[in-house]
Design goal:
CATH architecture: 3-Layer(aba) Sandwich
CATH superfamily: Vaccinia Virus protein VP39
Mean pLDDT: 92
Number of strands: 7
Order of helices and strands: HHHEHEHEEHEHEE
Shape: globular
Strand order of the largest sheet: 3-2-1-4-5-7-6
CATH topology: Rossmann fold
Helix content: 25-40%
Structural class: alpha/beta
Radius of gyration: 18 Å
């Protein structure tokens, strides 16, 4: 099963997992702490940051971020995730600054990310100039990406001069990090978390300056007692605390 096949199959039930909601809320808290201009933004204001989110899924983090930014372009390569996102967006008509896009983003000039979410009258994407962003986010995405050097190069190209990245994912702290995923969820997992020194080197290699890798938060979640047996919910289940990192850098 390919990465997209797995996420297409899981899209309808994705939001029913409370761990996904908690991790998204904690990621937002960390991003707001490191980028106070987001916290100060007035919802609906015509000023503020234009944000690109890589690997948005069904939009759990996207909808949390939207009130803090001018615009949010949310990209995911799994069509099922984007369809679920669009359904939620249709039910939240007050959210007008978000544009979900189904794309495997490999080119900063991709026509699909050119429309401004606040200028929906643009019908022909290829006639728009390439769009650049103030801030690029991703959450629990890096451990699914085969080539981090390639995605970091793309992200760098998508930023405005002076723009920043804030990428959150769980940390690879050793063999126990594998327990973050039950064995049935290993399809599409390229690495069991991210490593501080690896992220620092890769971001610097992509051209980022002021690179910082910090602990963002820790989150307890259910794990399998034995590989393949499934996660037992409730008091009888096993739990483990996982550290998350936030990876930041700036485009000169």
């Amino acid at each position: 099963m390919s990465n997209n096949d797995r996420f297409n199959a899981e899209a309808a039930a994705w939001d029913s997992n409370p761990d996904v909601h908690r991790a998204s809320a904690l990621a937002l808290q960390s991003v707001l702490e490191h980028f106070p201009q987001l916290k100060a933004h007035e919802a609906g204001s015509s000023t503020g940051l234009d944000v690109l989110e890589i690997g948005c899924g069904t939009g759990l983090l996207s909808f949390m971020v939207a009130p803090h930014v001018r615009s949010l372009t949310a990209v995911d390569s799994a069509e099922g995730m984007i369809e679920a996102f669009k359904l939620k967006l249709a039910k939240n008509e007050d959210v007008k600054n978000v544009l979900p896009v189904c794309a495997m983003l490999t080119d900063p000039d991709d026509v699909r990310i050119r429309p401004d979410p606040l200028s929906r009258e643009h019908a022909v994407e290829k006639e728009l100039p390439p769009r650049r962003f103030d801030l690029i986010l991703s959450h629990l995405v890096l451990h699914h990406i085969p080539s981090l050097s390639e995605i970091f190069a793309t992200i760098y190209g998508c930023l405005k001069p002076g723009g920043s990245v804030a990428l959150t994912d769980f940390e690879d702290f050793g063999p126990e990090a594998r327990k973050f995923h039950p064995e049935s969820k290993m399809d599409g997992v390229e690495r069991h978390g991210i490593r501080r020194e690896d992220m620092k080197a890769l971001l610097a290699e992509a051209g980022f300056i002021n690179v910082k890798i910090e602990t963002a938060f820790e989150m307890e979640k259910g794990i399998e007692r034995n590989p393949g047996e499934g996660v037992i919910k409730g008091e009888d289940g096993a739990k483990m605390s996982f550290p998350f990192l936030i990876c930041m850098g700036k485009k000169a």
